[in-house]
Amino acid sequence: MTGTPQSYVYDAVRTPFARFGGAFAETRPDDLAAATLRAIVDRTGLDPETIDEVVLGNANGAGEENRNVARMAALLAGLPVSVPGTTVNRLCGSSLDAAMIGSRIIETGDADIVLTGGVESMTRAPWVLPKPSRAYPAANAELVSTTLGWRLVNPAMPTEWTASLGECNEELRDIHGVSRERQDEFAARSHQLAHAAWEAGFYDDLVVAVPSTDLTRDESIRPDSTAHTLAQLKPSFRKDGTITAGNASPLSDGASAVLLGSAAAADRIGRNPLARVAGRGTHAVEPHRFGYAPVEAAEMALARVGISWSDVGAVELNEAFSVQSLICVDAWKIDPEIVNTKGGAIALGHPLGASGGRVLGTLAAAMRAEGHRWGVAAICIGVGQGLAVVLENEETA
Question: Is 366 inside a domain boundary?
């Protein structure tokens, strides 16, 4: 008998991440996704006929990406019409979930090559108008933005569950006592490390241009950020709060792609894998405590691999908010210096459906560059969920 098939990360790319209303304001989300899929195929020389499945994540799904963006992006990228596609929605974790699903498909033996990733245009996310139960209602109707957070809330949901994302994290701060100073220091570090990584050429092989656009680097990085300058910003959610526009991730547009395959797929892909998908974890908490959910998700993933935090050399944790990230790092009791060494979402941006693919691709590249055997990618998700993936760099085993 043969052993259980293993799944591997063979390549990862992403677009630069643009500011809300910035460089990608005129670019459709399906075109952003298509650009990353096409780039993966072109740079690996992969025969697109050998792709078994395309799995993409997307959080909003109410605009131009509404018609199964994975299938649309595959067609726009010029993949054969025989390559199927499916779209995953786990909000901020969508593209990490897509990679987890893709890895499971490979490990069951149902596929050898799966192209995963995700996309979000928060700029182009539409306003929606609730549909009336009957024609010509007498009352006014209100347009609702689909850019971020709760909308068209079911009245049966408890009020505390449906608070704004920022208020939820202010509540976490109340519980865990993370100071404004620590949050601003963490945010400044994110900007400084992201800038340094770009200057050192780390992102040159991870980021691909989008046709008909001029953006070549992430648009939200502010390399001159310091804890002192960030301390001057006013709170965004509470008059006496600690969360500001400077220590939270910005609204963003972008796409990511991660090529997964079995060990046997190496010859067809034409390269050796970057890392093995060694473990996965999914966890849920009360919806308004979503920022804490990655804690247990990562613990579950590590336990399934049979390793501990002392074995981990690199962590990519999506920085939805400084406070949420610091709470997770504190709970894991790990060295903060191994976390997001190439910058994080506070500097790079957080296009919801694309961020999971970004953290996974960055993790695989950083582990290779720095010689780490084990790494963890983790992300928090609105409505109280968290995901984590453990990667192994087998070259160091």
Answer: yes
Token couple for 190: 């994110």
Give the active site residues.
Answer: 92, 350, 380
- Give the pairing type, strands 85-88 and 113-121: unpaired
Spell out the residues 6+ positions from residue 133 whose beta carbon is closer than 8 angstroms to its own.
none
State the CATH number of the domain containing residue 337: 3.40.47.10
Alpha-carbon distance of 118 to 354, in angstroms, equals: 4
Cβ neighbours for 14, distance < 8 A, ≥ 6 positions apart:
36, 117, 206, 207, 208, 254, 255, 256, 257, 354, 357, 358, 361
Enclosing domain of residue 53: 7-125+249-396
- In a structure prediction context, what are the per-residue pLDDT tens digits for the chain, which is 397 residues long? 357 899 999 999 999 999 999 999 999 999 999 999 999 999 999 999 999 999 999 999 999 999 999 999 999 999 999 999 999 999 999 999 999 999 999 999 999 999 999 999 999 999 999 888 888 888 888 999 999 999 999 999 999 999 999 999 999 999 999 999 999 999 999 999 999 999 999 999 999 999 999 999 999 999 999 999 999 999 999 999 999 999 999 999 999 999 999 999 999 999 999 999 999 999 999 999 999 999 999 999 999 999 999 999 999 999 999 999 999 999 999 999 999 999 999 999 999 999 999 999 999 999 999 999 999 999 999 999 999 999 999 999 7
Q: How far apart are CA 232 and CA 227, in angstroms?
A: 9
> Would 239 be classed as within a structural domain?
no
CA torsion sign, 98 to 348 to 170 to 293?
A: positive
Q: DSSP letter for 115, please.
A: E
* 193 within domain boundaries: no
172 sits in which H/E element:
helix 165-176
Please check whether residue 145 is in contact with residue 87, taking contact to mean a CB–CB distance below 8 angstroms: no
- Looking at the domain assignment, is residue 143 inside a domain? no
The Cα 93–Cα 162 span in angstroms is: 18
> Who's near 281: CB < 8 A, 6+ residues apart?
296, 297, 298, 299, 300, 301, 302, 304, 386, 387, 388, 389
- DSSP E strands, the chain: 7-14, 18-19, 53-57, 85-88, 113-121, 127-128, 144-145, 252-262, 275-284, 312-317, 374-381, 385-392
**Count of the separate structural domains present in the chain:** 1
Question: What span, in angstroms and rounded, lies between the C-alpha atoms of 326 and 342?
Answer: 17
